Amino acid sequence: METPIQKVRFGTRGSLLARTQTQWVAHRFQRLYPQIEVELVVIETTGDKQRDRPFTAVGTKGMFVKEIEEALLQGTIDVGVHSAKDLPSELPNGLSIICIPPREVPYDVLIAREARSLEQLPAQAVIGTSSLRRRAQIASVRPDLRFVELRGNLDTRLRKLKEGQCDALVLAYAGLHRLGAEWEGRITQILPKEVCLPAPGQGALAIEAREDREDLRALFSALHCTDSACTLEAERSFQAALGGGCTVPIGALASLEGPSAVVLEAVVVSPDGRQRLFDTYTGLRSRAREVGATLARRMLERGAKVLIEAHR
Fold first, then answer.
1. How confident is the model at residue 48 (pLDDT cuts 50, 70, 90)?
2. Are the CB atoms for 16 and 153 separated by under 8 Å?
3. Catalytic site residue 108?
4. What per-residue confidence (pLDDT) applies to 306?
5. Residues 87 and 136 occupy one common structural domain
């Protein structure tokens, strides 16, 4: 007879956002299972250790998850809570995503010092972002803007904005919303997907555990959202088939249509924003993975590979 779980150790990065997201999951887990103790274990990842270097210079797949996954395999934590967009397309042997909680709004947002929208930013205004995807898509519609690499936690980025190191920031809506009204209230504009299509998995959380922990999978099933898992599966399948990691300028967003369909929109952009390839594909929810793979193949045939290789 199996011993009942008495404690679950949640692995998390140390940033304010990562801890807030993990606490959100742990709180809901404990409401369901008040008899089980929860513990947050803060783990410093490669991406956290190299905050002053551009993402492209770090050159590591899974730069924000690798050390958490190692802790899972070593048994020093029970689950890892990730921003789904940080997870590589392929997980290490022995690990599995056991739960996708309900997804937040996936869009990007503008936080500007003076302008009230992207359109109102003056020519040569400076956008602070660490994301090549955001930079390339915005350059596609506003080639007159300039961009500066801006890493660090949200406090650091907002301080740099206030100091005038840039005129605006582009960030994910989900993170600001999860941090609360004070942070969300700083948003100037939610960028439409036609301007800036989100990264695959943006706005979603992914709970990872060892494949052999069926006991944890059963417990976390009460937090699992099948709709969010479906859209995430389509986007991650697209990313895997396209061969694009989190540092490549691709966007993908799936949405559900009617009782049985999933619609996937995707874009691949050259780093300078001058070339933009967009496509969409609709398929069955039950075949979300196939939807992503099919759209990727179609876009590769249309020239996406050339745009991706130009970045490497």
1. confident
2. yes
3. no
4. 85
5. no
Evaluate whether residue 209 is within a structural domain: yes
**For 20-33, b where at least 16 C-beta lie within 10 A, e where not — what string?**
ebbbebbeebeeee
* Residue 2 within any structural domain of the chain: no
106/103 Cα distance (integer angstroms) = 8
- Crossing angle, helix 154-162 and helix 16-32, to 10 degrees? 140
Asked if 126 and 251 sit in the same domain, the reply is no
**Neighbour order of strands in the sheet with 250-257:** 250-257, 261-269, 276-284
**Per-residue pLDDT at 55 exceeds 70:** no
SS3 content of the chain, % helix, strand, coil (to 5): 40, 25, 40
Q: Which two tokens stand for residue 65?
A: 């998850």
DSSP state of 103: P
Q: How high does pLDDT run on average in the chain?
A: 92
In-domain check, residue 229: no
Residue 137 domain flag:
yes
Helix, strand, or coil here: 31?
helix
**DSSP 8-state symbol, 46:** H
Cβ pair 270, 230 in contact under 8 A: no
Same domain flag for 112 and 96? no
216 and 71 both lie in a single domain: yes
Please list, in sequence order, all residues whose beta carbon lies within 8 angstroms of the beta carbon of residue 150, skipping any fewer than 6 positions away. 128, 129, 130, 157, 160, 165, 166, 169
Q: Residue 217 belongs to a domain with what CATH number?
A: 3.40.190.10
Active-site hit among 78, 86, 108, 167: 86
Structure tokens at 3: 């011993």
**Domains: count for the chain:** 3
DSSP 8-state symbol, 89: S
Domain span at residue 289 reads: 236-311
Q: Tell me if the pTM is above 0.85.
A: yes
The alpha carbon of 4 is separated from its chain's Cα centroid by a whole number of angstroms, namely 33
Say what angle helices 288-301 and 304-311 make with each other, to 10 degrees.
80
Question: Do 208 and 163 belong together in one domain?
Answer: no
Report the alpha-carbon angle 76-153-109, nearest 5.
Answer: 120
Q: Is the dihedral of CA 47, 49, 55, 56 positive or negative?
A: negative
